Amino acid sequence: LRAVRDREKRNGDGRGTGFLNWLKDREISKSQAYALIEVANSADTLLEGGYLEPEDVNQFSKRAFVETAHSAPEVKQMVSDAARKGDRITRREVRQLSDEWTAMTSDLLPEPIREKAADHTLPTRYLAPLVKEMQKLPVTHQVTLRETIAETPDVDTVKQVTAEARYLAKYLEAAARVQALSTESLNLELALEEALRIGCLSATADLVNQAAQLEQTVVKLFLTWKRLNSLSERVYLDSGESTPHLRTLLSCLGNLANDVIETPLDDMSDRVVRLQVLNE
After folding, report:
1. What number of other Cβ atoms are within 10 A of residue 114's Cβ?
2. Is residue 2 located within the same domain as residue 95?
3. Per mean pLDDT, which range of 2-11, 213-222, 233-242, 250-259 is the poorest?
4. 59, 88 in Cβ contact below 8 A?
5. Is residue 262 part of a domain?
6. pLDDT in tens, 38-64
7. Domain check: are 37 and 88 in the same one?
8. Where in the sequence is the domain holding 31, given as residue range(s)?
9. How far does CA 183 lie from the centroid of its chain?
10. Contact 257, 264 (CB under 8 A)
């Protein structure tokens, strides 16, 4: 599959059409093909890295194979050692080993948390998501969250801090995309601190994310409206008295092509949404 894909990419149109047609002729779906290619890539990673012998491959499920290839080198080594001993390797076992390794070694976790992970009084499955979310944050926020879980190193605190880290990352990522927030009078960090203080971080993160989506939607709407106007004008010039039905179609679309766009809120409602476009 990988060889055919690369061959078609070199000899084809560069968009992968040849490979897709090749798959279609053999009744292989695109998702199935790329899942198998990922297994092949994983095999290369493990074999070339010296983690695995060819005869050990059948000890793995497909998903465990891919999961192992994406793991840290130390986890790869532990998994391959188990495979050499004849153990059956599943994706769940690989993830558990990865979680344990993360909990023992990540500098983002304070010492009390790592100690609890080591003596199994704090399940490692809660710590890997925490590390993943904290990695997305600036150092200042990482320090604050580390101090919080160091003070109360239990499962409930870990869950709460994981959620906070997720909302923080969501807020910071969305805020960078919102043009309306690009003003010197706004301090995003202070706004974030205030949201944390009054307990509305989740709602604030969602608010900023929705604002980013709305800005993108408005831009897309304007570009689509411009395109609709251009096409309407072209069809109008090409049509005439001999094409009354085509002219009727243009007339029906007038509510969308005018400076004031009008459309029903839904199929069953009499309510109408009106948006005015100021085309300067």
Report:
1. 17
2. yes
3. 2-11
4. yes
5. no
6. 888 888 888 888 888 888 888 888 888
7. yes
8. 1-105
9. 28
10. no
Tell me the C-alpha distance between 85 and 221, whole Å: 60
pLDDT at 211 over 90: yes
Tell me: do 64 and 132 sit in the same domain. Answer: no
DSSP helix/strand/coil, 83: helix
Name the residue with tokens 């005869």. 55
The per-residue pLDDT for 163 is 92
Does residue 26 sit within a domain? yes
For residue 223, is it within any domain? no
Sign of CA dihedral 175, 180, 185, 191: negative
The domain total for the chain is 2
Category of 134 on φ-ψ map: left (φ > 0), alpha (ψ -120 to 50) or beta = alpha
The residue length of the chain stands at: 280
Burial (0-12, 13-18, 19+ Cβ within 10 Å), 171: buried
pTM of the entire predicted model: 0.65
What is the Cα–Cα distance from 209 to 139, expressed in whole angstroms?
22
Q: Identify the pLDDT of residue 156.
A: 94
* Shared domain check, 101 and 47: yes
Amino acid at position 139, single letter: V
